[in-house]
Amino acid sequence: MAPAQAASVVPNFTSGTVTSETTSRTEVTEVINVVEYSNSTSYTASGTNINIPGTPGLGTNYTQVVPGQAFQFSETMMTPGIASETYIERTTVIDSITNSVSVFTQ
Questions:
Q1: Full-prediction pTM beyond 0.70?
Q2: Which of 26, 45, 51, 102 has the most crowded Cβ, counting Cβ within 10 A?
């Protein structure tokens, strides 16, 4: 068997350019669901020009400080259970384009 021989390789070009483009898309969907619970009963009363006794509650007799004048009154009673719920769903999309150019000469 004859020994292997090597021959030189001579490129047949003098210059060249290679261009490439890479695109990608990332899509992320987030879901946030927060549920807050109350395990007791609460009662609040507030207002203007209203006489609120030291221990307000359902069935309490509220009176105006200055009868006949304008007034505001609000009472809220919360019982055990779901106090509030917050639901957020959002999608984030990121598009990326990368262009590359390589120039070479001999």
A1: no
A2: 45
